[in-house]
Structure formats: structure tokens, C-alpha cells
Write a structure and sequence with these properties.
two-stranded parallel sheet, single chain, 151 residues, mainly alpha
Length: 151
């Protein structure tokens, strides 16, 4: 669900990860969070209203700074492109559901790649959701997941 963000545009995810690390170091956590909430990753959820914005800011703030820095600099910024891993994707032998929000522009290409490359994979787009489908559309997310697991 909502996977592969930045996988088709490695330099961009490296740039944004480094941007957020710099924000935190230079201007503090609040400045970094404000920038994160304007990004494609979080804006669909955060723009639903003040309560959602505070909730997402709280989730980010609750992440230990060392963990957030590591995720940004060592995971996201160094992620290998899914488009270079098609051999591995073709070798997946288990039933696979690929879910993304209808407005998840970050994962659109990577989700399509996985659905087209993993044998028998099913692609499911969830209406009214962006990049964080379990939070943005939990009922739809759970219903699609349960339907897939039952099948």
C-alpha cells in the first residue's frame, strides 16, 4: 500500500530527504514538519483540516529524531529504483495486492509497475485518498484488503 514513492525519481527523493534533514538541523523540527506537511507525501491528509494537520504533525514529532534522520538519509535517500528491480518483481510467487490512493501521485508509476510486473498482482486504487490510504480511507482500505485476503 502506497509503496515505491520516489522509486522512479531517485534524485528527487534524495533531494527532499536532504532538504528535511537540513530544515531540522538549521531551523528546527517545527520548520521541518511544516515543510513535510506541504509535500506530496502528507499534504492530501494534512489539507483535510486543522485536526488532520495536527494529527500528522504529532505523528512526525513522535518519531525519535535519530530514527527520522536515519529513515530520510539512509533509507529514502539511498533507495534503489523499482524500475531496476523488475527481475525480482517477476520472481514473486505469492498473491499480491498493490493498493494506492486515487490521488497518490507519488506512487502512481511504481504501483503500476508492480501490478504489471508481479505475476497475477491486483492493482486497487482507493477513491478519496492520497499517499496515506490507511489513515485517509480506513474503511475502504480494510474492505479491499479483507476482500483480497478472502479471495
Amino acid at each position: 500500500a502506497d509503496v515505491g514513492a520516489g522509486a522512479d525519481d531517485g534524485w528527487k527523493i534524495q533531494w527532499i530527504a536532504n532538504r528535511w534533514i537540513d530544515f531540522a538541523a538549521r531551523d528546527g523540527t517545527d520548520a521541518m514538519i511544516a515543510d513535510m506537511l506541504r509535500s506530496e507525501q502528507f499534504k492530501f491528509y494534512a489539507n483535510r483540516g486543522p485536526r488532520f494537520r495536527r494529527h500528522m504533525a504529532g505523528l512526525i514529532r513522535a518519531t525519535p529524531p535519530a530514527g527520522l534522520r536515519h529513515t530520510l538519509s539512509e533509507v529514502l535517500a539511498k533507495r534503489k529504483s523499482l524500475f531496476r528491480m523488475t527481475g525480482g518483481l517477476k520472481s514473486i510467487k505469492v498473491p499480491t495486492l498493490v493498493m494506492l490512493g486515487q490521488q497518490d501521485y507519488l506512487c502512481r508509476n511504481s504501483s503500476r509497475l508492480m501490478a504489471e510486473t508481479i505475476p497475477g498482482a491486483v492493482l486497487c486504487k482507493i477513491a478519496g485518498a492520497g499517499h496515506i490510504t490507511p489513515l485517509e480511507a480506513p474503511r475502504q482500505f480494510n474492505a479491499h484488503l479483507l476482500d483480497f485476503l478472502r479471495s
